[in-house]
Amino acid sequence: MIGTGFSYYAAFLVAFAVAFLLGPLLIPLLRRLKFGQSVRESGPEAHRVKVGTPAMGGILFLAGLTVAVVVLFPGRQSILVLVVSLGLGAIGFVDDFLKAVRRKSLGLRAREKLLIQGIIGVVLSVGAQALGVGTAVRVPFTEVFLHLGFFWPFVVVFILVGTANAVNLTDGLDGLAGGLTIIALAFFVLVGNPDLSRSALALMGGLVGFLWFNLHPAKVFMGDTGSLALGGALAAIAVLSGTELYLPIIGGIFLVETLSVILQVFFFRWLGRRILRMSPLHHHFELAGWSERRVVVRFWLAGLALAIFGYLGWR
């Protein structure tokens, strides 16, 4: 085991190096295999140019996270975070693969994905309890802990499934979900135990390497392979650190994006009208005339403000 102080830096740097060096190898391979992005028919017209851009780019930061955890700090909690991330990444990989093969924007059925996500949520719950994680969660801005007892495993499954799909919905613009996840992970670096802090740093490093290729105009997309894995990692770290109730704050943009979809569907089905030009929310601002870069940077800034607010609620 590498010394604790050095391993913090190494976690980030090793994961970054793996993602950054793997990119020039993986991206052409994905292009040759025609594992390109499909854009939904109802999406913004400007996104038509993205059709065919290689997807499954989440492999880059997942490879970085895996190498960093296995080689540098194979602690029990970090291994559980890795297992959850890879499990959800595998669901996303199958989904991305089916989309590429079928040349459509639909892969696995929603109920299939939710069922497997729920199973992984159970794995996280059982694994966390086996590692001695209690069923108490801290209430933000207080020293009060809620003891969930019997209900805690159900909450864990809900958080995992909800966070994974929230990040997935947010992943619609170049660099958006990756940047927001880096910001949220910074919170866990500050409040987590050494094992979880290093896991967060490793994932941050892998994401920085990935963003080198994913910033606008993106050469590769993370796909469901990456977005589901990122949501799983955030949920797993939150559960293991007892900060589940901080996720809606530090990941507030993910929450708002999800609510925008829910409200859009509700108002259209029950009232026959839309409240947004298009959902998720980032598409609404695109259709309002904002450039893709402008939407991404402003959402990042809002995410940063929320992460700082969450950290103040922890101290």
Structure characterization notes:
- The chain has one domain.
- By secondary structure, it is an all-alpha fold.
- Helix 5 crosses helix 10.
- The model has no long low-confidence stretch (mean pLDDT about 90).
- It is globular, with a radius of gyration of 19 Å.
- It has helices spanning about 5-30, 60-70, 75-100, 110-130, 150-170, 175-190, 195-215, 225-240, 245-250, 250-270, 280-285, 290-315, and strands spanning about 135-140, 145.
- A hairpin with a 6-residue loop joins strand 1 (about 135-140) and strand 2.
- Strands 1-2 form a two-stranded antiparallel sheet.
- The longest helix has 29 residues, at about 5-30.
Comma- or semicolon-separated keywords:
two-stranded antiparallel sheet, 12 helices
Reconstruct the topology from this structure.
Layout: H1 4-32, H2 58-72, H3 76-102, H4 110-130, E1 136-138, E2 145-147, H5 152-170, H6 176-191, H7 194-214, H8 223-241, H9 247-250, H10 252-271, H11 281-287, H12 292-314
Antiparallel strand pairs: 1-2
Helix pairs in contact: 1-2, 1-7, 2-3, 2-7, 2-8, 3-4, 3-7, 3-8, 4-5, 5-8, 5-10, 6-7, 6-8, 6-12
Overall structural domain count? 1
Please tell me how large the radius of gyration is: 19 Å
The N- to C-terminal Cα distance equals: 30 Å
N-to-C SSE series?
HHHHEEHHHHHHHH
* Share of residues in helices: over 70%
